[in-house]
Amino acid sequence: MVLDEGALKLKSEDSSTLDRLKEAIRRKRPGLLSRGVVLQHDNTTPHSANLTQQWLQRYGWEILPHPAHSPDLAPSDFHLFGPLKRHLGDMAFETEDDLISELRNWFDNLDVDFFRVGINSLLQRWQKCIDLHGDYVEK
């Protein structure tokens, strides 16, 4: 999903994003919503906004605790952005649509194992964070 420019500044956008996520889960993983959703996200302003918190509480989604400023525990930071940055390299795009097209192409061609490795490494990173009493986990 590609957010509009400035969307992260809008607290209502986060709940709209969560509405779209909830609908995607309902379509793609029937039954998962009734078993309960555990969401991992950082503590940035949109994620901690009252509207977002009310949405999460209304639907009973559990939030995993996330230490402040811990990109080492966010799969997008430790697993996704590096390969994406290498892929984009020195590419230049004439329009935003060209960039979005390239991003969609890149994501569509990622193997399911790419995502599996990133998610599976979370367990080890969480354990390291616990062992280090919340200190930064590098690798």
Approximate strand percentage: under 5%
The overall pLDDT average reads: 81
Give me the side-by-side strand order of the main sheet: 1-2
Q: What is the total tally of β strands?
A: 2
Main beta-sheet strand count, sense and barrel state? 2 strands, parallel
How many domain modules?
2
Instruction: Give the helix proportion (percent range).
Output: 55-70%
Q: How many whole angstroms does the radius of gyration measure?
A: 17 Å
**Distance separating the two termini:** 28 Å
Helix segment tally = 7
The secondary-structure class comes to mainly alpha
H and E string: HHEHHEHHH
Low-confidence stretches: 7-11
Gross morphology is: globular
GO molecular function: nucleic acid binding
Protein name: Transposase
Organism: Plakobranchus ocellatus
Textual characterization of the structure:
With 139 residues, the protein is mostly helical. It folds into 2 domains: 7-63, no CATH class; 71-131, no CATH class. Helices cover 60% and strands 3% of the residues. The protein has 7 helices and 2 strands; from the N terminus they run ααβααβααα. A two-stranded parallel sheet has the order 1-2. Helix 1 (11-28) packs parallel to helix 4 (50-59) and helix 5 (75-88) crosses helix 7 (112-131). Residues 7-11 have low confidence and may be disordered. This is Transposase. It comes from Plakobranchus ocellatus. One of its GO terms (molecular function) is nucleic acid binding.
